[in-house]
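2024-03-11 09:14:02 INFO receiving multi-entity request
2024-03-11 09:14:02 INFO entity count = two
2024-03-11 09:14:03 INFO echoing inputs for audit
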Amino acid sequence: MAGRPTARRRGIPAGYIFLLPWFLGFFGLTLGPALASLALSFTNYDLIGTPGWVGLANYVRILTADSKVAESVRVTLLYVALSVPFKLGFALAIAMILNRGIAGLPLYRALFYLPSLLGASVAIATLWRTVFSGDGLLNKVLLQFGIHGPSWVSDPDTAIYTLVALSVWQFGSPMIIFLAGLRQLPRDIYEAASLDGATPWYQFWRITTPLLTPVIFFNLVVQTIDAFKAFTPAFIISGGTGGPINATLFYTLYLYQEAFGYLRMGYAAALAWLLVIAIAGVTALAFLSARRWVHYEA
Amino acid sequence: MKPSWPRSLLAHAVLCAASLVMLYPLLWMLASSFRPNSDIFTSISLWPDPFAPGAYRRGWSGLQVSFGTFFNNSLVIAVLAVIGNVTTCSLTAFAVTRLRFRGRDVFFALMLGTMMVPYQVTLIPQYILFLHLDWVNTALPLVVPKFLAVDAFFIFLLAQFFRGIPRELDEAAVMDGCSAWRIYWNIALPLALPALGTAAIFTFIFTWDDFFGPLVYLNDIETFTVQLGLRGFLDSSGTSDWGAMFAMAVLTLLPVLAFFLFFQRTLIQGIATTGLK
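2024-03-11 09:21:47 INFO inference complete, emitting structure
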């Protein structure tokens, strides 16, 4: 009879009543709309007329004929491939330093975390845009060292790196998860290893890293999915255009332009479904590869 | 394993340098918001001299609608989102962890599944739905979903907490003839206050910072949130009153900073245990 509260005597189990809001939300705002967008992706719906069936035409055009899709995929993949490793690298390095029993840990931890908390806001994106502009803060600082920097945000070769920097700047939250993971590692292994004369470098690669792989894996998956979905920084830094010359045209930004700029709802729905498939594919790959490199303690 | 002092000195040097580099742009923005416009792009110092707080007044009424309206709109949306998330996510989490009924585990799996789905995939039909309900340019599209437990992450966070409450408490309450509702209200919720607090704070911050939702649903300047208002400064680039823009940027960050200062421990624990942002 463990935990079997009443209500079931009266017909409808209490659980269903408790779940009523969620049922409404799940069917009305999640599952229903997801299926509707799948259906829309086979139409040319433009919000005004009635949707006309076009079969696979949207998908064919996305995959073969739309050069902006190709560019946005390139920009997005470059962003994911650069921002995630650097962010996690910084997070792990700083977490390792903080985990050495250093004085003032709570203060450092808080200071490093602050950017993660503020980074999603428009305020920080506008700050970034001014810091990396031609006469912005970064170039003023570089000038002190006699370096003349370019206009980072308006140069198509460098614009994407300002977005990568903004993402890496927010390494605080994975750092906190790494710190929590490092705390759990058994101390006695390190003591035994030190007695056996293992160098700190050896200990890092042979003990810490393997034991920490579940946490690394978690951070990797979460940050990768987040990076695929990033939108606000690119929108603010490029003024909504994805420029200069599409250099910051994230896939999500292109989707937004198609849907709400040109009202090509059917086409945008197809873009959204391809994004889902891409994210699911990357996640599945990560889980498959995890068998080879993630060590869960028996 | 305390490090020796030269090593710990080195560690402090690295950490201090890193914090300084990271926080410098933030402090520079704060300083710039108190500078005359002519100084903003010439000074890299963190001390505004001469001190000119006029940007705050110019920014507050710099667009055709006062920034006070934007603050008001943002506050209403964020507070309603907190109420919605805390009530419906806790009801849902309580049901899937403490009650028994057919299909419970399937529902919980579906909730976890929705955490993986990017919002883009429901965006367009939701927009069409809200457009037909005539909810565009109101707060409803941003608030009503929170009352339907769509933020699965908070269900997950609260479920983790409810699981930790000893079963004996429920059983004793059932013996005493308590209904499921009474157990939820009188036993589970009071015990879960720390987790509810975490959910409330994160909901407030995420809603306050949200840009995409308001961008899609709010077009009338009277309904703008602070994030949209701030973007208004960038768009009216003809004026280029950077001081006013920085001043308003600082103001929009203040609520989040306040939460950070007062609830730093709660926030950090919330991330460490759930992997939230």
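2024-03-11 09:21:48 INFO post-check: Chain A touches chain B through 99 residues (CB under 8 Å).
2024-03-11 09:21:48 INFO post-check: Chain A has one domain: 67-293.
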